[in-house]
Amino acid sequence: MFDSLFDYFLDALIDSAKLVPFLYVIYLLIELLEHKAGSSFPRILGKSKQVGPLAGGLVGVVPQCGLAAASASLYSGKVITLGTLIAVFLSASDEMLPILISSAYPIVSILKILLVKVSIAVVSGYLVDLVFRKGTETDQVAKDEAEKTFGEYEHRSNMFLCALRHTIEIFIFIFVFSLIINIIIGSVGEENVSKVFNSIPVVGELVAALVGLIPNCASSVIITQLYLDGIIKAGPMFAGLLVNAGVGTMVLVKTNRDSKNSLGVIGLLYGLGVIWGILIELSGLVF
User: Fold this and answer.
1) Cα–Cα distance for residue pair 28/35, rounded to 1 Å
2) What is the pTM of this model?
3) For the chain, how far is it from start to end, CA to CA, in angstroms?
4) What angle, 0 to 180 degrees and rounded to 10, lies between the N-to-C axes of helices 234-242 and 217-228?
5) 141/40 Cα distance (integer angstroms)
6) What pLDDT digit, counting tens, does each position of 61-71 carry?
7) 41 lies in which domain range?
8) 93, 67 Cβ separation under 8 angstroms
9) What Rg do the C-alpha atoms of the chain give, in angstroms?
């Protein structure tokens, strides 16, 4: 028993350690992007009217958790539409991109995943605005608050140290999750674990979307790793990552005075994630 646990521990440690150099380079590039971009992302969304969902879908795909948080502040201040907020949330996916790249996942497949996510975000955003026709008003205070929120999630200190801290944090998440998965698979078998998500239609999407709603980077790590390990298919993976807006939902609840509206937005996000996940699974798309 002890030997098996040691083997699981060693395998998880080796597999996770292999990703560290790639994760560090990726997060360093993201840090550089954040420093160069400054507060321009919230300003782009704040100025967008008719093209709000398009801008939200395109900008949201950038792996930057501060953007989803700033978008939530802009929506709470009635600066952007609900459709634009939904587009940002659906397009964002927290740690998915760094993990896929560091795991040497085929670049063509990564681009396909990003393209599908952006397309879903833009289409959903415009549909939401079409159904929920509600005007926005210019609110300079809300814009300033959004830029402040974005700034809080940017790293203004040493980029190298910030990238290292983020790398270590994600390494720990991946290691712990890999260890747990290794123990479970070693105990019950990979096929039995996979059946939990794939044997009953829709259950995988419903569960994955619930996990994706957790306002923490760990949720995107878990979903991405489950997909890379072959435990969940494309449908549940998209359902979980589409609703994964990082801390965006948490900031929405904090900044939006209308708590019922916040719960409605989160419910809408969850429903869209599940529906699109089911459609992707039924389509048989391969990534």
Assistant:
1) 11
2) 0.81
3) 37
4) 170
5) 16
6) 877 666 787 88
7) 2-283
8) no
9) 19
Count of domains for the chain: 1
Q: How far is CA 27 from the centre of its chain?
A: 15
Residue owning tokens 């609110």:
139
Amino acid at 232: I
3-state SS of the chain is: CHHHHHHHHHHHHHHHHCCHHHHHHHHHHHHHHHHHHCCHHHHHHHHCCCCHHHHHHHHHCCCCHHHHHHHHHHHHCCCCCHHHHHHHHHHCCCCHHHHHHHCCCCHHHHHHHHHHHHHHHHHHHHHHHHHCCCCCCCCHHHHHHHHHHHHHHCCCCCHHHHHHHHHHHHHHHHHHHHHHHHHHHHHHCHHHHHHHHHCCCCHHHHHHHHHHCCCCHHHHHHHHHHHHCCCCCHHHHHHHHHCCCCCHHHHHHHHCCCHHHHHHHHHHHHHHHHHHHHHHHHHCCCC
Nearest to 76 by CA among 284, 248, 286: 248
Q: How far apart are CA 119 and CA 97, in angstroms?
A: 17
Q: Which two tokens stand for residue 75?
A: 């929506």
pLDDT digits (tens, 9 = 90+) for 140-192: 555 555 555 555 555 455 778 888 887 898 888 888 888 888 888 777 776 77
